[in-house]
Amino acid sequence: MLPDRCSIKEKGRNCVNPPEFVISVVNEKDEYMIGVSCENHKNIISEKLEILQKEEKIPKGKISFVKLKAVGTDCIKASPDDLIQL
Questions:
Q1: Longest dimension (CA), the chain
Q2: Parallel, antiparallel, or unpaired: how do β-strands 9-10 and 13-14 relate?
Q3: Which parts of 7-83 fold into alpha helices (H)?
Q4: What is the pLDDT of residues 17-40, one digit of tens each?
Q5: What whole-number distance in Å separates Cα of residue 55 and Cα of residue 33?
Q6: Per-residue confidence in pLDDT tens, the chain, 86 aa
Q7: What's the pTM?
Q8: E-strand spans in 1-67?
């Protein structure tokens, strides 16, 4: 399961946009999921992650943004009220 909105907070308020990218840090051995981001905040979170890497608060490595894809399946039954707009 992924969060239903972007991981960014601006001026103390959560972003209301749905996630468009999964953000992770990839190094030689592992890949660490950091969060999710909308298109509007992609650059902001990239800059923040570079700062956190310099401060050694998160692992060093390449910051990766993977576009989310909507997937449909017939094995889960849901009402239209249960669906989240992507």
A1: 46
A2: antiparallel
A3: 42-54
A4: 999 999 999 998 899 988 899 999
A5: 18
A6: 778 889 888 888 999 999 999 999 999 889 998 889 999 999 999 999 999 999 999 989 999 999 988 776 666 666 666 665 54
A7: 0.71
A8: 9-10, 13-14, 21-26, 31-37, 62-67
Q: Which amino acid is at 23?
A: I
Residue labelled with tokens 């700062």: 51
Q: From CA 48, how far away is CA 84, in angstroms rounded?
A: 28
> Cβ distance 21 to 66 under 8 Å?
yes
d(CA 12, CA 22): 22
Say if CB 22 and CB 6 are below 8 A apart.
no
Quick check: 35 and 49 in contact, CB under 8 A? no
Question: How far is the C-alpha of 26 from the C-alpha of 23, rounded, in Å?
Answer: 10
* Local structure of residue 30 (DSSP, 8 states): -
